[in-house]
Amino acid sequence: MTIIDMHCDALFKMQVAKRDSLYRKPLLNFTNAEELDTNFHRLQSGGVKVQFFAIFLHPELPSDEKWQHALEQVDLFHSEIIGMNPQMRHIARWQDIKELKEDEIGAVLTLEGAEPIGNDLAKLRHLYRLGVLSVGLTWNTANLCADGAGEPRGAGLTLLGKNVVHANNEQRILTDVSHLSEKAFWDVIELAEFPVASHSNARALCNHARNLTDEQAMEMFKRKAMVNVVFYPPFINENQERATIPDLIRHIDHFCSLGGLEHIGFGSDFDGIKLFTDSLKNAGDYPVLIDELQKHYSETEVEGFAYRNFLAHLPD
């Protein structure tokens, strides 16, 4: 079955390896590197048709290095993922997804945290030109745009953050709420024309700040916005390092009970996690998840979770 996965951190992992290669460690080959949960062969064997690749920076990176690090990851996306794998196609505009050939896999650039742009909207516009189609304002901490889910202050959007959302709207770019504080989430919901939760679960089942409350989830569904479940065990089972696929499906069940049947998708967080749901350790394992879902939902409903819901929500 065709899969659309809205979040992975392969670019960060590849950048770390590239910098380590200066000290004679090997550069990761996106085609088949065992270290990459989302390498080309695994995407292919898992039936992934579109993979979103996040630009993510280590939170302790000095401010004056962040823009350069972001550009390095964009370069890896174009040179190592697209450039070295002819069947990987850069999705530069939403319409490109609908034009993928049977043997092609779409690759979408996203930004996880606006730290690279500082307070310079020209840098944001440059990222749009380089192909970024989804922007998350924060990771877990605070920056010049907003507070993240892990920031004790819990503040909302700054004026700069609001300007970023307006810019996203103008360019028909998704605004990702997955890492925002609750106050910032509600600020975004008031402004964003194209909100999305790229990788979040239900807080009612796992009380973690990275998950969505029922009120947040219902507001997303009311606005016909996608919520993509994440495969990281601590976001599935509270205070646990282990989870099973049935545990993950409980979150899908819960979101469906809130009216989300047509607004649920997948955001694995592969290559950004070191703990895995049982039998779901890389992109090649997607068929196992699909088989289990088909025990609980109809073929049409499972196709919705896998890809059809996302396609129905594409900015036109």
From TrEMBL:
UniProt-listed Pfam families: Peptidase_M19
Transmembrane segments: none
Cited PANTHER family: DIPEPTIDASE (PTHR10443:SF12), MICROSOMAL DIPEPTIDASE (PTHR10443)
Name the UniProt record assigns to this protein: Dipeptidase
Organism: Planomicrobium okeanokoites (Planococcus okeanokoites)
Lineage, opening ranks: Bacteria, Bacillati, Bacillota, Bacilli, Bacillales
